[in-house]
User: Which sequence fits this backbone?
């Protein structure tokens, strides 16, 4: 197993106190002076007077502190989905930022082999955020150091997962109920690493909650460099709709970039959310499952209507990348949910899905797909030429990648 070196950053106690008592203090320090682009113009809210960029183009770059993100479309962290193959695909289709699925801080701290597997990072994933979750500041700080040493460009903290297995430990969305605890966790991570720290959160635990609006400025005050808001409550899970009026309110209350997440599935919706909320970027989750073309449409503005052969060829390419990453045996069960996502709406999809679910190897599944959609072969030829240009897998961090048992937030 690869050895992951732990790195500590000395913390100035007076500076740390300033960060917690003077909101926005960190933005004036030498390591937090964002470079403003000529394409950005400032506008101020009559409610709070806070700065945020006026977004004119979804495909223009932006900054999370000193990390440049090439487009305003980010790929969300999703448990059991956001493996390396999924992230690399997202970058290829236009996502400016990709994020790992959430990683247990305790698992990293204990040196759990399966948890360490999440730190597999390829050179074509950058910029990449690795998301961590936990309820103990010391272990969160240690985990943050480990993911940075593994190559993460940002550390993201999960304050959004609504799944009981996570919240019962005091992690995930449960942190929204105690802002002092949330700030201690975030502050410990900020103090531990030199890269930007972001937080992904929900609006609150209960329906109608607005707790994220109060927590956001406090997270900014302890040094968090960006926020992502999924404006559903933890109680809602994925029912109902995302209330982006709340996202707009959060933007007005903080001076750091805000990413809007929830119910964004196409470019027109992405542009509308950016325009109505003032958010710096949109974060796409379920809208990209089996639909990488949606990312390209949002990021590049090119309408995407791939033919069945192209869809299946992309699925096969994804399957091959997952096998390379996870191994043939473990890929069988992992890939099954992706079959339905990719094939929905295609002719004969129901019958093909049934055959795929009965396959006991990925090779068998590939044969079923190519026999059912002969047009995929031509597209695969061009895919294989592109694969030859990808970074040498031997130079990637080849750690065993587990499948998460958790659900995402």
Assistant:
């Amino acid at each position: 197993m690869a050895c992951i070196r732990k790195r500590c950053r000395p913390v100035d106690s007076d500076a740390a106190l300033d960060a917690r008592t003077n909101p926005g203090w960190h933005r004036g320090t030498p390591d937090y002076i964002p470079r403003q682009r000529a394409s950005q113009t400032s506008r101020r809210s009559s409610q709070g007077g806070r700065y945020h960029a006026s977004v004119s183009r979804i495909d223009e770059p932006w900054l999370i502190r000193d990390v440049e993100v090439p487009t305003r479309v980010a790929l969300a962290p999703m448990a059991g989905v956001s493996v390396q193959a999924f992230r690399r695909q997202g970058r290829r289709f236009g996502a400016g930022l990709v994020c790992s699925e959430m990683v247990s801080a305790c698992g990293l701290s204990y040196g759990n082999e399966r948890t360490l597997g999440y730190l597999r990072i390829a050179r074509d994933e950058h910029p990449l955020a690795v998301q961590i979750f936990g309820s103990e500041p010391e272990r969160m700080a240690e985990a943050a150091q480990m993911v940075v040493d593994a190559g993460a460009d940002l550390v993201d903290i999960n304050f959004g997962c609504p799944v009981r297995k996570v919240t019962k430990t005091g992690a995930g969305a449960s942190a929204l109920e105690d802002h002092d605890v949330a700030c201690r966790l975030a502050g410990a991570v900020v103090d531990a690493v030199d890269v930007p720290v972001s937080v992904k959160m929900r609006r609150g635990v209960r329906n109608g909650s607005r707790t994220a609006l109060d927590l956001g400025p406090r997270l900014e005050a302890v040094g968090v460099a960006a926020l992502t808001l999924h404006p559903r409550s933890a109680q809602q899970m994925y029912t109902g709709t995302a209330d982006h009026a709340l996202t707009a309110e959060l933007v007005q209350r903080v001076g750091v970039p805000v990413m809007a997440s929830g119910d964004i599935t196409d470019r027109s919706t992405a542009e509308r959310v950016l325009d109505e909320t003032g958010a710096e970027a949109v974060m796409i989750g379920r809208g990209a499952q089996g639909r990488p073309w949606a990312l390209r449409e949002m990021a590049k503005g090119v309408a995407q209507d791939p033919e069945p052969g192209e869809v299946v060829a992309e699925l096969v390419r994804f399957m091959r990348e997952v096998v390379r990453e996870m191994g043939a045996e473990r890929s069988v069960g992992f890939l099954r949910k992706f079959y339905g996502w990719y094939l929905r709406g295609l002719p004969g999809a129901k019958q093909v899905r049934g055959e795929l679910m009965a396959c006991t190897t990925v090779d068998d599944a590939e044969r079923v797909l190519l026999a059912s959609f002969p047009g995929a072969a031509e597209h695969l030829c061009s895919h294989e030429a592109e694969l030859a240009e990808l970074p040498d897998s031997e130079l990637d961090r080849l750690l065993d990648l587990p499948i998460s048992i958790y659900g995402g937030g």
Q: What stands out?
A: The domain at 308-387 is CATH 1.10.1200 (Non-ribosomal Peptide Synthetase Peptidyl Carrier Protein; Chain A).
